């Protein structure tokens, strides 16, 4: 897990980018709208929104909830699963809203579109985060910590 602010920012960035890329790809395929132009056209704005939501809204709340759950906090795996699950729930809550607003705007069908998007996104995002993105990004973070990538000083 991240031990410094720099590591935390690095970890948040790689997890957020990986999830936005994967979920954008998933949603475009799911709705029969995949093209590289659509994917890359929405990737940067989606990443910016997701990153800001993660850093300023979801992360602190998700961690508070995870630490309040009746789990064995001494077991690292239990804490990883609790925090990751709470993060996914929060991010799916907000990013599904973002996706519906971007695709359809605020129409009278907003709630039905939102419910469908929330369920479809949660079904994909939770296992994606717990089984693939989370472990891969934690491995990248661990390698960076071992090799001191984030703490090396520039040579002039």
From TrEMBL:
UniProt cross-references to InterPro entries, sorted A to Z: DUF2798 (IPR021529)
Keyword Isomerase: no
Protein origin, superkingdom: Bacteria
Transmembrane feature ranges: 9-30, 36-59, 80-106, 112-133
Record's keyword terms, sorted: Membrane, Transmembrane, Transmembrane helix
Name of the protein in its database record: DUF2798 domain-containing protein
């Amino acid at each position: 897990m991240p031990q410094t602010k720099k590591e935390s920012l690095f970890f948040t960035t790689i997890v957020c980018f990986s999830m936005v890329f994967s979920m954008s790809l998933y949603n475009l395929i799911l709705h029969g709208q995949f093209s590289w132009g659509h994917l890359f056209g929405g990737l940067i704005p989606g990443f910016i929104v997701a990153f800001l939501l993660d850093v300023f809204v979801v992360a602190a709340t998700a961690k508070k909830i995870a630490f309040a759950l009746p789990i064995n906090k001494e077991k690292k795996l239990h804490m990883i699963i609790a925090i990751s699950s709470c993060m996914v729930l929060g991010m799916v809550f907000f990013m599904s809203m973002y996706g519906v607003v971007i695709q359809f705007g605020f129409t009278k069908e907003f709630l039905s579109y939102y419910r469908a998007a929330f369920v479809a996104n949660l079904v994909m995002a939770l296992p994606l985060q717990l089984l693939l993105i989370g472990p891969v990004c934690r491995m990248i973070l661990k390698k960076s910590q071992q090799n001191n990538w984030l703490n090396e000083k520039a040579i002039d």
